[in-house]
């Protein structure tokens, strides 16, 4: 590809650092640097996409509302992006800084104008999309963040197409990872990508650090001598090329909690009534930067952190 002077300037110009995109998610001074990848890992329904909405909103909101006013590219490989949900989160967050009348439609449109959504239905389309994005990153220094939901969307499809050849099964994701590596190196973008857990467990054990070793075939049935799913379910299973890119790993889980005891007139004769809520936990393990655990709930405003626990 022939590079113009403007594209060269954009590529060499320092992009906005996203190290402080959400300090509560990462260890102190351990947020993603330019050119790094954050993997958001966990079973379905553990808050991964809600965390993406949190990061997305933070970037496209105006400075006056605590945002970064940056352009974001969202690659929706799961076809799960809910624009109504995103608008609701933006509207709720804008209300906290807007006049009493609330944010107007023009302000919401301005936020959404900073978002580019692309859909992919196969690894081949994802590869072509990344090639297309290279031109965009070269000419748009304001585009600092790439979100992928999810990088594992075509895992089983690729395995089926590769048949018995392990190298064929990983070939397409390998190519996508190699191209992503070049985009990270040349344009210093930051990538957040969700990855679905292929094993379900109600009490997952978060991994202590990003791993770069290949995992056994996830389709093989566990034997009596194999590790139990509760200990092995968070082990990285995507290709080695992808694992080498990951600098931070956010492992998500959820549990039902009983925040407080409540009694009502009608139920007082039957004893106290417990109110249950869903609490999500995100464990961040950063390469050479320690780890951190946070708990959050999901409301109309999106992710709301409730407690924090730091680990060395």
Structure commentary:
With 312 residues, the protein is an alpha/beta fold. Helix content is 32%, strand content 26%. The chain contains 9 helices and 9 strands. It has a 9-stranded mixed sheet with strand order 3-2-4-5-1-6-7-8-9, with helices on both faces. The N and C termini lie far apart (45 Å). The C terminus is likely disordered.
Looking at this protein, list some descriptive labels.
disordered C terminus; globular; 312 residues; nine-stranded mixed β-sheet; 9 strands; alpha/beta; 32% helix
Write the layout of secondary structure elements.
Blueprint lengths: L4 H8 L24 E6 L5 H13 L10 E6 L6 H13 L9 H8 L2 E5 L3 H17 L3 E7 L5 H8 L3 H22 L2 E7 L32 H4 L7 H6 E17 L10 E14 L3 E10 L2 E10 L1
Parallel strand pairs: 1-5, 1-6, 2-3, 2-4, 4-5
Antiparallel strand pairs: 6-7, 7-8, 8-9
Oligomer: single chain
Gross morphology: globular
In N-to-C order, the SSE pattern is HEHEHHEHEHHEHHEEEE
Number of helices: 9
Helix content range: 25-40%
Largest sheet: 9 strands, mixed
Number of DSSP E strands: 9
What's the N-to-C terminus distance? 45 Å
The average pLDDT score comes to 79
- Ranges where pLDDT stays below 50 over 5 or more residues in a row are 202-209, 211-231, 261-274, 308-312
Structural class: alpha/beta
Largest sheet strand order:
3-2-4-5-1-6-7-8-9
Name the beta content range: 25-35%
């Amino acid at each position: 590809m022939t590079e113009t002077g403007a594209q060269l300037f954009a590529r060499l110009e320092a992009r906005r650092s996203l190290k402080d995109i959400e300090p509560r998610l990462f260890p102190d001074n351990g947020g993603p640097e330019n050119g790094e990848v954050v993997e958001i890992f966990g079973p379905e329904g553990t808050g991964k996409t809600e965390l993406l909405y949190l990061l997305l909103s933070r970037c496209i909101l105006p400075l006056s509302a605590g945002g970064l006013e940056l352009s974001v590219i969202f690659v929706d490989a799961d076809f799960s992006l809910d624009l109504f949900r995103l608008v609701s989160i933006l509207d709720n967050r804008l209300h906290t800084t807007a006049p009493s009348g609330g944010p107007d439609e023009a302000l919401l449109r301005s936020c959404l104008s900073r978002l580019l959504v692309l859909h992919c239905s196969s690894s081949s389309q994802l590869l072509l999309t990344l090639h297309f994005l290279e031109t965009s990153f070269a000419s748009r220094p304001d585009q600092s963040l790439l979100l992928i939901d999810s990088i594992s969307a075509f895992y089983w499809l690729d395995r089926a197409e590769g048949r018995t050849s392990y190298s064929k099964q990983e070939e397409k994701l390998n190519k996508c990872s190699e191209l992503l590596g070049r985009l990270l190196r040349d344009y210093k973008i930051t990538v957040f990508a969700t990855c679905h857990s292929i094993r379900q467990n109600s009490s997952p054990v978060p991994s202590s650090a990003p791993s770069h070793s290949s995992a056994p075939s996830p389709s093989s049935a566990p034997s009596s001598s194999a590790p139990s799913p509760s200990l092995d379910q968070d082990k990285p299973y995507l290709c080695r090329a992808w694992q080498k890119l990951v600098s931070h790993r956010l492992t998500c889980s959820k549990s039902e909690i009983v925040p407080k005891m409540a009694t009502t007139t009608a139920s007082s004769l039957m004893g106290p009534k417990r109110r249950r809520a869903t609490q999500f936990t995100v464990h961040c393990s950063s390469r050479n930067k320690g780890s951190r655990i946070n708990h959050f709930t999901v409301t109309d405003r999106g992710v709301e952190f409730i407690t924090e626990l730091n680990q060395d």
